[in-house]
Amino acid sequence: MRRFAVALVAALAAAAASPARSQAWPSKPVRVVVNFPPGGAADQLMRALAPRLQETLGQPFVVENRPGANGSIGAGEIAKAAPDGHGILMSSGGAIALNGLIYRNLGYDPMKALDPVAPVAVVSVFLEIQPSIPAANLAEFVAHARANPGKLNYGSPGNGSSPHLAGEMFNRAAKIQTTHVAYKGAGPAMTDLLGGQLQFMFDPGIGLQHVRAGKLRLLAVGSPKRHPAWPDVPTVAEVVGGEFDADTVFGLYAPAGTPKDIVARLNQEVTRQMQGGPMAERVAAIGATGLQLAPEAFAARVRAEHARMAGLVKETGLKAD
């Protein structure tokens, strides 16, 4: 009986310890690394989300931009951080699922060094061109590109990003030759598209405001289906044929080994914030779609995306140094 009583007390103490640990977190400001420059989709989403997490969790969520190498630099900082929930990452899915496949000397494996915490949005890419290009639709743009091989430049947030992959897939599907220009984020690439240094871009939504203002022309969406906010805009596949899916999931990640109760609590708070109100409006503004998943389901989706990316990398021969 005494042994049973001791075991019972120990079990009760253990049960009480887990909630206590969750309640103690966060005990200091949380550092949030966005692994792309200001102005991109990841940055816009996180800067809208951070003050709401601060309000509900009681500690500042301090956003820092650490761009470079398609998000590998910023992701690497969090991969090597203490797994205590006070250092987290906001990243595109491509930086996690793809970088380990195309960069040879990362110094870490994104799929092993980072734990998926919570998705924020499914981000589509929109094929936008300079209005000076003589093309009113995608078929005319493909014809123009074929007539000018190697003369059209497109930008992306970096080597291996989903907009870069979309551009390479587009070249192959449309049988055209265009030149990729890598930037350190979607914001700088968009600046050059607006300035005329680039002729087109697969935009992760930040340029839609310029489409509405008439500064860019939207020709297609790189998703499997038409976008509900732009029902008259075709998918790339509708025009060039085959399959075309360049969607990616943006979300939060923590260093591998972060306590599950902390991960679960952060997931719960992010999910609550993303279900409506200002965050839903922010997501819609960049043409993205909200997504809520438990950590385990999010991790399964990341693994599936990694497997899909491996096939695309093999097909396209994509590499980054």
Give a structural overview.
The structure is a single chain. The protein has helices at 2-24, 41-57, 72-79, 93-97, 99-102, 110-113, 138-147, 162-174, 186-195, 208-212, 236-240, 260-274, 277-285, 295-316, and strands at residues 30-34, 61-65, 87-91, 114-123, 126-129, 153-156, 179-182, 200-203, 217-221, 248-255, 289-290. The protein is an alpha/beta fold and 321 residues long. The chain has 2 domains: 25-122 and 249-316, D-Maltodextrin-Binding Protein, domain 2, CATH 3.40.190; 126-240, Periplasmic binding protein-like II (D-Maltodextrin-Binding Protein, domain 2, 3-Layer(aba) Sandwich). Helix 2 links the parallel strand 1 (30-34) and strand 2 (61-65). Helix 2 (41-57) crosses helix 12 and helix 2 (41-57) runs antiparallel to helix 13 (277-285). It is globular and about 65 Å long. The chain starts with a helix and ends in a 5-residue tail after the last helix. The model is unreliable at 1-22 (pLDDT under 50).
What's the gist of this structure?
The chain is of the alpha/beta class.
Main sheet: strand order: 2-1-3-10-4-11
- The string of secondary-structure elements, in order, is HEHEHEHHHEEHEHEHEHEHEHHEH
CATH top-level class of the largest domain? Alpha Beta
Q: By helix and strand content, what is the structural category?
A: alpha/beta
Shape: globular
Give average pLDDT, whole number: 91
CATH topology (fold) name of the largest domain: D-Maltodextrin-Binding Protein, domain 2
Look at the structure and name the CATH superfamily of the largest domain. Answer: Bordetella uptake gene, domain 1
Task: Estimate what percentage of residues fall within beta strands.
Answer: 15-25%
> Treating each run of at least 4 consecutive H or I residues as one helix, how many helices?
14
Any low-confidence stretches, pLDDT <50, length ≥5?
Answer: 1-22
The total domain count is: 2
Number of strands: 11
- CATH structural architecture of the largest domain: 3-Layer(aba) Sandwich
Rg, Å, rounded: 21 Å
Largest sheet: 6 strands, mixed
Percent helix: 40-55%
